[in-house]
Amino acid sequence: MTGLEITEVVIPGSVDAPNAADFLACIDVRSAVWSHDSGTQDEVRPPEEMLPGWRKQEFEPKRMLLARLDGRPVGRALAERVEALAREARATKFIVYAPCWRVGGPRLAAPTGFGDVAADTPETRLLQSFGYRLEQVERGSRLPLPVDAAVLEAMQEEAGETAGDEYRIHTWVDATPPEWREDIAHLLTRMSTDAPSAGLEESEDPWTVERLLADEALEEDSPTVRLVAAVEHVPSGRLAGFTELVLPENLARPVDQEDTIVVREHRGHRLGMLLKIANIAHLQRVRPGHPRIVTYNAEENRHMLDVNEAIGFEPFVYEGAWRKDVPA
Given this model, what pLDDT does residue 74 score? Predict the structure, then answer.
């Protein structure tokens, strides 16, 4: 394509670094696309929040490309370049997540039997032309804040009765307390094996205390605040699950619901509900004023969706997870 320039972005040490211009430009493009397609600012992130994640290269290597071409489509050329980089890294499985804001019209169903995406969007056509197949649909949901304190208390009491005395809730802000680091590393590893992944067949992503500390050190540069609620299995003294909320500086922006997990051997005690209610109450105590919470779940993860719906979350977007296999 004449006049097209695709360059790899050097991830800067800070947003004020002399070489930060390309990174900032990429984040501007991401924000423009999300706000245009969704009609909201809920998924727009300032570069200060995005940078720590991009600097996590030791355990999660990632590459960023920037395309420059005034007024012409560059999606196919960018996709080709990304695939070339993946092949150079000897990857044999490519996974792409593509939001779908369109409702109605022809639909493409996920093979899980849960959820679908629009069949005739540019994203769907591009991915299919590259040989990708839809494997899973994720639901984005929002919960208006504040949640009535009496409602939270009643739901927490009901879930607590099912959980019984064998489980105890702990909450903290930002860094994991030393006594829980090993357990949180274990739970983060279980996120990759216990969460529904449909035909994506996600491999185990091992976490250690060393990786957890490195991750938290990079997050210290972020203006966000993390609220964690964890549930301890009292007889064993080990954590059975946790949930995490990420709070932006600006009170006008929504809160992100990040990882939530209860390990398989402790399910059936309403611990997911207990955790989420505890952390929402934690949020409303320490940082009231945010307009809503945003979360994403696999459509086939009916248990967690049932928890979310009972609390008051409502869907606002769906996201297709696509897979392509290539020979080694």
Answer: 81
Rg of the chain (C-alpha set): 21
**pLDDT score at 103:** 83
Residues contacting 29, CB < 8 A, separation 6+: none
d(CA 311, CA 155): 8
What is residue 213's three-state secondary structure? helix
DSSP state of 322: E
Q: Mark the ranges of the chain whose per-residue pLDDT is less than 50.
A: none
Would you say 136 and 200 are in contact if contact means Cβ atoms under 8 Å apart? yes
- pLDDT at residue number 64: 96
For the stretch 199-202, contacts whose Cβ atoms lie closer than 8 Å and that sit 24 or more positions apart, written own/partner, are 199/111, 199/112, 199/133, 199/135, 199/136, 199/323, 200/95, 200/135, 200/136, 200/321, 200/323, 201/93
pLDDT of residue 1: 52
What are the counts of helices (DSSP H) followed by strands (DSSP E) for the chain? 9, 12
Domains assigned to the chain? 5-141 (no CATH), 146-290 (3.40.630.30)
